[in-house]
Amino acid sequence: MEAPSDQGTNPSRGDRTDDVPEALPGMVVERRVEWPDTDAAGHYHHSTVVRWVEAAEAALLRRLGLAHLFGSTPRVHFEADYRARLWFGDLVRIELRVVEVGTTSLHYAFSVRGQGDEEAARGRMSIAHSAADAAGATPWPDEVRELLTKAGAQAPELGG
Fold first, then answer.
1. Are 35 and 48 in contact (CB under 8 A)?
2. Of 11, 47, 57, 109, which residue is the least packed, with the fewest Cβ within 10 Å?
């Protein structure tokens, strides 16, 4: 499925999670680097960031009452820049922010920070809305769009 190119509510598509309007939702979660998250070198494996970002997304959608979207929001783009190592046992904070809501798409920016607030990874993820019986992307329902554009930052989920 191709990423839809549609008009969004936020024309700024920068990578920084703090450059988006306050009305757009965001979520911070904490996780610990577990043994299976590491590679042979002893630091976190690149694929771990995908799981952490999706965990933050799941927490955000549950918090907004949008858990019914699971299964109808395929990923159409994921990119990450890895900037620092994280080691087994480190506590990490994942910040996920909605940066743009289009007619059928949603764009997130994320940041992963280790102890001492050092940025270990940052990037973007784009999803499309696709109703269960649809062959492609479908518009966001009005009530979902309302939450995705106006819910603001959510209370953190700490203690991962």
1. no
2. 11
Residue where the block lists tokens 């997130």: 108
Give, as one character, the DSSP assignment of residue 44: B
Is 55 in contact with 120 (CB distance < 8 Å)?
A: no
- Contact partners, residue 22, CB within 8 Å, separation at least 6: 152, 153
Q: What is the predicted pLDDT for the residue at 132?
A: 79
Burial 98-126 (b: 16+ CB within 10 A, else e): bbbbbbbbbbbbbbbbbeeeeebbbbbbb
Single out the residue of 99, 108, 109, 98 nearest to residue 15, CA to CA: 109
- Residue 154 and residue 97 in contact, taking contact as beta carbons nearer than 8 Å: no
Residue carrying the six token digits 């990119």:
79
Taken as a whole, the chain contains a residue count of: 160
Q: Calculate the alpha carbon distances from 68 to 19, 62, 71, 73, 141 in Å.
A: 28, 9, 8, 10, 12
Residue 3 above 70 pLDDT? Answer: no
Question: Mind listing the pLDDT tens digit for each residue in 105-118?
Answer: 999 999 999 988 89
CA distance 127 to 90: 29
